[in-house]
Design the sequence.
């Protein structure tokens, strides 16, 4: 299977998301799509507000894990296609940092596959987020 580009520098733009969706209109065997969008929250932590998250990863290992997730998802679910995108670098509160897009003939598959992919990426892929606060202090993000 062809290696897919996953990492995007900075925020994932609404234009990128809409173009991704538009590319699938010519695929007439698809009956359902499901999308997950992860957005940076302006969390309040110890009286400080998150202004942005700076994402980093060990790209070689992350790519390997993402490939394994992709393969296991296609084995487990009857999908037509699947795309995973994640930001690297600085993403401001309110911007999109994680985009999962799955397609299938039927809707049941896309719901289950989306949840599976999102959970596996969050649990298994070494992507790290440093929360940057308005006062420019920072701390490593804990996934929840």
Sequence:
């Amino acid at each position: 299977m062809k290696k897919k580009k996953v990492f995007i520098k900075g925020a994932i733009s609404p234009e990128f998301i809409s173009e991704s969706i538009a590319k699938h209109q010519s695929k007439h065997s698809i009956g359902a799509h499901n999308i997950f969008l992860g957005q940076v929250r302006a969390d309040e932590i110890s009286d400080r507000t998150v202004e942005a998250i700076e994402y980093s990863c060990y790209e070689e290992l992350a790519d390997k894990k993402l490939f394994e997730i992709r393969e296991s998802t296609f084995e487990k679910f009857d999908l037509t296609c699947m795309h995973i995108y994640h930001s690297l670098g600085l993403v401001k509160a309110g911007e999109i940092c994680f985009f999962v897009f799955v397609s299938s003939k039927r809707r049941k598959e896309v719901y289950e596959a989306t949840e599976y992919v999102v959970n596996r990426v969050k649990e298994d892929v070494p992507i790290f987020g440093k929360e940057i606060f308005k006062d420019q202090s920072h701390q490593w993000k804990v996934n929840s």
Notes: The CA atoms of residues 43 and 50 lie 5 Å apart.
